[in-house]
Every structure is written in structure tokens, then in C-alpha cells.
Design goal:
The complex is a heterodimer of chains A (629) and B (179). Chain A is an alpha+beta fold and 629 residues long. Helices cover 37% and strands 24% of the residues of chain A. Chain B is built from 7 helices and no strands.
């Protein structure tokens, strides 16, 4: 029997131009964009040469918002219109925000959904819109520097982000006009930057100490599957705390009384930060500060003194390390490598203590500020189809269990945590009243047994159930989590075959109407035309589809299609091409849907052929013992 | 339409419907199926193909989790044979229930023991023995392929579920006892 030759699905066998793709690290304090150029990943600087973009957005009454260093400079002068650390607000409800909110100088108002908005001089803005300004800035930076339109991006999110936070991140990208290939977990991205995905297997710790947050994640790599074993951290611990410790010591040495002199404290913190950074290269550094009354104090900060000052802070990072190791039932000695992420891991004492705790020298030769963006760029390059021979495949897991509310405020788990995604589970429901035609379902995320202790994800109603006696209907609801960790729900009444209508109302997300309105708003700002924008979106989608179908035809058309079937697909493609040339957005949409329909069977056959190939492409020696799970 | 979506888990992996599964082979097949089907492999493809890729990858993930675990595999085989565990029929062998009660008492008393960790280790060994014994019996029962043997297999899966729950409780207590 002749074996069919089948190329990697979704990838063209013909040489093609290099597609522009980026990795974006959307951080709490700073954000970065990186890309792969001539084989190596690098972060892209702005016109002034700065790679880090401060994640700060300032709104104005008379002009579009400013983002980055300029906005950061306005934090003190215009606090209520200058939004910092918006990442902490993503996918959160008003109650959570008040909980976080000590010291947040913003006025919050509620929107039509549960998502809070910040009152600014330019109008009410949701965290999603604020984030989209940061993403837009990075997108423009990349397009200018690469000289073309981006095909897509990989955006990183913390491993512990729940569905609402991931959805909010994806919505922000959509507002910024970015096509998201994939949301990638930050620790996984860091591991990829170090090429750990190339190794056969191992357990790795990713130690991420930033300016104001600390995260520790344990990953297990097993046959190309990256599994997040456990995550932990401290959302209020970072390099800023080291600066405060040094500043306190300087005040003590200089005999300055702690008071409310904001400008003095600022100067002290600046000097402290400077000294901390200098001590990564030298063993002592001169420090001085102009105290009250014009008196200048000068002294010396030794490395030893610095270590004494920050040791208690490093101890506070090791406590969550211990906890995650215990959660994962892993001993420090079983860790095969430690990856350092975040600017504060440049501090020598941090490296020493981490090395001592895990018993191995940490991986630190990639700039810890850029390592996440670099890993994301490497995956974006693969997903854009620029590396057809790459075997990289990152399988993530869902970080939290997904369940539904049942009687008595309890939860029933549907998809347990750490399930490899994508994952789908079906659950059967029935009616409890005669003639009942609707059913309310409440989806929650979390590990606890009571609904109130979990995060509410969404509520939806199944409507259109045919009236039957109580308990007679069999409604199968399928919960599907995609590769980005995002949930979708579908339902079907088993006896009548009626597809029930589902309206998912995200508890802390944006409704489609809100996104639509935000798109309009953001376009007003960019002085762009809404119609032009949606036309462009459909054209890009049409191009992507044409290219995808052509590549598929070229690879498998001869083997899998009859002449008639091929002709039907070509006809749909031709119609799509014609619509694409015109300026009728609706016509392109229709042609896209028609092409999608025309290729459905072909897609299924390609998948089937791919499976056959996976199962057939083995020789007996592949299954020798010693490879036991 | 002939997609993997209507295949059973064994067919999906091209394996015979049997309780005996070569785990190393299963793991390799899983990886290779993922390499073909995963949405990341279809990022540039048409919408229909991407949607299908998510569904099929989810199916392969579910199949892998089921076939990899002996108890879940056994229950799945019984389900394919039309033998479902009904919630109304919860009769258990009295002897087994007595044995369970004894094991649970040991677990409870371990908390007050002078050397609780050592007691728990002994208990774990005992539960492991009980599990392995039933897994062996399960293998024989599932190979026999007659109604009586399959009914017996169903009973064994229930007992194994009890034992697995006990393992979880032992682990929880171990966590509590650790400093």
C-alpha cells in the first residue's frame, strides 16, 4: 500500500515570505515587545532607544492618551488621570478592586457589566481599554521598526490568571487591533527563552521578582508538555521594598527624622535604587543625600550591609517557594533548573540565596527583564509559520478547577485543575419542574467546595428546552477550554436534539456591546474611520483564510479531494478573492463564511489523515521499554 | 464525515480494546497525535480547521487521561460494554466494608500516634497491596468477557474507588503532619 505524503497541517510546503510576529510581555510595571529577526529573538526599543515601556497611561481632555515614560512622569502631578499597574485590575470586579484598592487614587464607577471603570478627564475607561493603549503603543513600535503590518502576537499572562483575567487581556488586544495567536503563561515563556522545551524532561522553577510583585512557579516538562505544577507568590513584594529598606538605613545613618517630606523621601529612594544597582558590579558604593536645612550627608554602603538589609525580604520570597514545593510534593534537590525573571533578580544576594535554596546555579544569562518577551517572540515565530520544521509544542494546563453551582451553594467540579488544555467535558442536566423550558447555570473557578469561596466566571441560561415532564429532559452541556485557557459553552437537549440557546454573561468581563462601543471610542481617538477599520479586519481575515486554504490544497488536495470537491473549494476561493478586492465588508464576511463551509469536510479529512500519520509513523523500536511513563 | 470525534478512545489511539495498555507506547502516540492536531499547529489555517483542531485535541487529551489511569480505563471499558455504574445500586460486599472501616480507624489513630509518619507509611503500603490485588483481579475479569465477569469487574472498580479516596485522605493527613 502506498503511503500518503502529508505535510505538516496548517503549514505551507511552498517557501513564503517571513511573517511579522511579536511576543508581548504585558507587565504590571513595564511592558516589552520582542520579535525573531535573522534567527534570534530580540526586544525592540522605541525611538529613544528604551526597550522597557512603563505600563502607565495618562488621559487628556484635548488629545489622545500618552503611554510610557511621559505618562510615568505625570503620576505625581496628575494622579487621577494617570493609570499605573492596570494589570492588577484586569478581569476584576468592583469589590475586588476595593479590596486591592488601598491607596488607588482613582474614582471607580460601574459599567453595564460587572467590570469597573475609572473616571478620567477623557471619560470613563475600563482596565481593558487602558491595557489596550499599552498594547497599541507596542504594536506601533513593532510595525515601525519592522516596516510592515503584524500577522499576530503571543501575549504573556501570569500562570495563575483566571478565565476573566485572560479574557480581559484578549479583549484588550482586540481593541488594539492585534491578532492574538496565543496567550502564553509567563513562566512557560521564560522557560522557552532558555530552550528548556528542547530538553527531554525535567522539573523547573521560575523565580520572578519584579518591582512590586513576586511569583514562583514550578513547571514540569514531560515529552514536550509543559505542566504548571504549582504557583505561588506575594503580590506586594519586590525591588521597591529593597529601595525602602536602603532608604530607611540611610536616614538612620544620616540622623534624619522620618517625616512627611515627600521630596526628601523621593530623593532617598532614588539614591537607594542607584546604590542597589551599583552594588551588582562593585563591593561598595558612596551614597549621599541633601538632608533638611541643606546639610549633606555622605556615607558608604557596602555589599555586606546591603545583604543584611535585604535578607529579610529574600526570606519572604523563600517562604512561598517552600509552599509550592510542598504543594507539588517536590524536594528542592529534585529541581533540574531555576530560571530568573524580573529586574530585581539582578541583585547578587537574591541569586546567591536562590542558588543555595535550590542547590543549583540559576539560569540568568538572558536579561531577566526581557526573558519573558523573548520566549513569547520565539513561540510567535513558530505560530506565524516561519519555522515549518520546528517541533516546538507547548501544552499548557488550566490553572484552576472549573465547576458549576449545585444545590446548597456547593460546587461540582467539571474540569479539574491541571488538566491539559484544550479540554472539553460534557455534563448532563435535567429539569425539576413539569414543562420547564429554561435552566440557569452558574460557572465558577477555584478549588473550594463552596461557591462563595470560588470566583464567579459566568452565569447563563439555557432556553428553548422543549416542555416535558420534570426530570425527562436530558440537556448535555459541553464546557470547552481552548488553548488560551478560555471557556466556551454549548448545549443540546439529547432527546429532541434541540440546541439550547446560551447566553453567557461574564461576571467580570465585558459584554459584546461594550466591546463594540469601546472599539468606536478608541477609533475616535485614533481619528480612524470605524468602517475602514472593520473593512480592514475582514480583508486581513480573508487573506489569512485564502492563504490557509491554498496551502492545504497544495499539500493534501490531490490525495484527499475528488475533482468535483476541489472545484467547489476553488469556486468558493475565487468568490472570496473577488469580494476581497471590493470594499463591501458584508460581502467579504459572507464569502468568508461560505469558504469556511466549503472547506469543512476537507478540514476534517486532513485532521483524520494527520491522525493516521501520527499513528502509522512508528517503527517497533520506538516502543522499546525504558520509556515508561 | 469521518473525523476522530466519533471514535472511541481506543480507536483514537489505534489500540486494541483491552485493559492491557502499554503505557510507554500510549505516551508516544499521545505526543504524536498532539503534534498533528494541536491548535498551535493550525494557527494559520482556516476557521473550520482550527475549530476542529480544538475539539479533537480536547478529545485526545480526554482519551489519554482515561487510558493512562487503570481505574478510569476499566470503567471506560465497562461503559463501552454497556455496563454503567448506577447511583441507585450501591451495594457493597460486607467483608470489604469491614476492611475499609478497619483501614479508616488506622488512619484516624495515626494522628495520635507517637510516630504518625511511620504509621501512615505502613498504612499506605497496606492500601497499595489491596489496590494491586484488585487490579490483578480486574485484569482477569475484564479479559473473561462474560456478563458475570463484567459485573464482578464493576464491583472491583467500586472498591478501587474507595481505596483511591483513602489514599487521598492519607496524603492530606501527611500534609497536615508535615512541619
Amino acid at each position: 500500500m502506498a503511503l500518503l505524503q502529508i505535510s505538516e497541517p496548517g503549514q505551507s510546503s511552498a517557501p513564503h515570505e517571513h511573517r511579522l510576529a511579536v511576543g508581548i510581555d504585558l507587565g504590571t510595571t513595564n511592558s516589552l515587545v520582542a520579535t525573531v529577526r535573522s534567527g534570534s529573538a530580540e526586544t525592540l526599543p522605541d525611538a529613544a532607544g528604551a526597550h522597557l515601556l512603563p505600563s502607565v497611561v495618562q488621559y487628556h481632555s484635548d488629545r489622545p492618551p500618552t503611554v510610557g515614560a511621559e505618562a510615568l512622569a505625570a503620576v505625581r502631578t496628575d494622579p487621577s488621570n494617570t493609570i499605573v499597574s492596570v494589570k492588577r485590575l484586569m478581569g476584576r470586579g468592583l469589590e475586588d478592586v476595593h479590596h486591592l484598592g488601598t491607596g488607588l487614587p482613582y474614582d471607580f464607577v460601574t459599567g453595564e457589566s460587572g467590570m469597573p471603570r475609572i473616571r478620567t478627564i477623557a471619560g470613563d475607561r475600563s482596565p481593558v481599554e487602558v491595557s489596550s493603549e499599552i498594547l497599541r503603543t507596542l504594536k506601533e513600535r513593532a510595525e515601525e521598526s519592522l516596516g510592515g503590518e503584524l500577522t499576530g502576537a503571543v501575549i504573556t499572562v501570569p500562570a495563575y490568571f483566571d478565565d476573566a483575567q485572560r479574557q480581559a487581556t484578549k479583549d484588550a488586544a482586540r481593541l488594539a487591533g492585534l491578532h492574538v495567536f496565543r496567550l502564553l503563561n509567563e513562566p512557560t515563556a521564560a522557560a522557552v527563552a532558555y530552550g528548556l522545551d528542547q530538553r527531554p524532561e525535567g522539573v523547573y522553577a521560575v523565580y520572578d521578582l519584579g518591582g512590586g510583585t513576586f511569583d514562583i512557579s514550578l513547571l514540569r516538562l514531560h515529552r514536550g508538555v509543559f505542566e504548571v505544577l504549582a504557583t505561588g507568590g506575594d503580590s506586594a513584594l519586590g525591588g521597591d521594598d529593597m529601595d525602602h529598606a536602603i532608604a530607611d538605613w540611610m536616614m538612620q545613618q544620616a540622623g534624619i527624622e522620618p517625616d512627611d517630606d515627600r521630596s526628601l523621601i523621593r530623593r532617598l529612594l532614588h539614591e537607594a535604587r542607584h546604590a542597589k544597582e551599583a552594588l551588582t558590579d562593585v563591593d561598595e558604593v558612596g551614597v549621599s543625600v541633601d538632608g533638611p536645612g541643606g546639610k549633606t550627608w555622605s556615607g558608604t554602603l557596602s555589599l555586606e550591609q546591603l545583604n543584611t538589609l535585604i535578607d529579610p525580604l529574600v526570606d519572604r520570597t523563600l517562604a512561598p517557594c517552600k509552599r509550592v514545593l510542598r504543594d507539588a510534593r517536590i524536594k528542592p534537590a529534585e529541581i533540574d533548573g531555576v530560571v530568573l525573571v524580573g529586574g530585581s533578580t539582578r541583585v547578587r544576594r537574591v541569586r546567591e540565596r536562590v542558588a543555595a535554596y535550590f542547590g543549583s546555579e540559576p539560569l540568568a544569562n538572558i536579561d531577566p527583564d526581557r526573558v519573558v518577551a523573548i520566549g513569547a517572540a520565539l513561540q510567535a515565530d513558530v505560530l506565524a509559520g516561519n519555522k515549518p520544521d520546528s517541533e516546538m509544542l507547548l501544552l499548557d494546563v488550566n490553572p484552576l478547577s472549573l465547576g458549576i453551582e449545585i444545590m446548597g451553594g456547593m460546587t461540582e467540579k467539571i474540569i479539574p485543575r491541571n488538566s491539559t488544555i484544550p479540554v472539553a467535558k460534557a455534563q448532563d442536566f435535567t429539569t425539576y419542574k413539569d414543562g420547564q423550558t429554561a435552566l440557569a447555570v452558574h460557572v465558577v473557578q477555584g478549588e473550594r467546595e463552596m461557591v462563595d469561596a470560588c470566583r464567579s466566571l459566568a452565569r447563563f441560561e439555557l432556553r428553548g428546552i422543549p416542555p416535558m415532564a420534570a426530570g425527562a429532559a436530558r440537556i448535555r452541556v459541553t464546557f470547552q477550554v481552548d488553548a488560551d485557557g478560555l471557556l466556551s459553552v454549548s448545549a443540546r437537549e439529547q432527546i429532541s436534539g434541540v440546541e439550547a440557546h446560551i447566553e453567557v454573561k461574564p461576571s467580570y468581563g465585558l459584554s459584546d456591546g461594550e466591546i463594540e462601543r469601546m472599539l468606536r471610542d478608541s477609533i475616535d481617538h485614533a481619528r480612524e474611520d470605524m468602517d475602514a477599520r472593520s473593512l480592514r479586519e475582514q480583508q486581513v481575515e480573508a487573506d489569512r483564510l485564502q492563504e490557509g486554504v491554498r496551502a492545504a490544497l497544495e499539500a493534501d488536495g490531490d490525495a484527499l479531494l475528488s475533482a468535483d470537491e476541489r472545484a467547489a473549494i476553488l469556486a468558493a476561493l475565487e468568490e472570496l478573492g473577488r469580494a476581497r478586492q471590493g470594499a463591501d465588508t458584508g460581502a467579504i464576511k459572507t464569502a468568508i463564511a461560505a469558504t469556511d463551509r466549503a472547506t469543512r469536510d476537507f478540514a476534517a479529512r486532513r485532521m483524520d489523515a494527520g491522525m493516521k500519520q501520527a499513528l502509522a509513523g512508528h517503527r517497533p523500536e520506538d516502543f522499546l521499554p525504558g520509556d515508561q511513563d | 464525515m469521518h473525523t476522530g470525534l466519533d471514535k472511541n478512545f481506543f480507536e483514537l489511539f489505534g489500540l486494541p480494546e483491552s485493559f492491557d495498555v502499554d503505557l510507554s507506547r500510549l505516551a508516544i502516540l499521545y505526543r504524536d497525535l498532539q503534534a498533528q492536531l494541536h491548535p498551535d499547529r493550525h494557527a494559520a489555517a482556516a476557521e473550520a480547521q482550527r475549530r476542529l483542531s480544538v475539539q479533537m485535541t480536547a478529545q485526545v487529551n480526554e482519551a489519554y487521561q482515561t487510558l493512562k489511569d487503570p481505574l478510569r480505563r476499566a470503567r471506560y471499558i465497562l461503559q463501552l460494554q454497556g455496563i454503567e455504574d448506577s447511583e441507585t445500586d450501591t451495594r457493597m460486599d460486607p467483608e470489604f466494608l469491614m476492611e475499609q472501616m478497619a483501614l479508616r480507624e488506622t488512619l484516624e489513630s495515626a494522628r495520635e500516634d507517637k510516630e504518625p509518619v511511620a504509621r501512615l507509611d505502613e498504612l499506605t503500603a497496606e492500601v497499595d497491596r489491596a489496590r494491586n490485588q484488585r487490579l490483578q483481579q480486574l485484569r482477569v475479569a475484564l479479559a473473561a468477557d462474560d456478563e458475570t465477569a463484567l459485573r464482578q469487574a464493576l464491583t472491583l472498580t467500586r472498591e478501587l474507588q474507595f481505596l483511591e479516596k483513602l489514599v487521598v485522605e492519607i496524603e492530606q493527613l501527611e500534609d497536615e503532619l508535615l512541619p
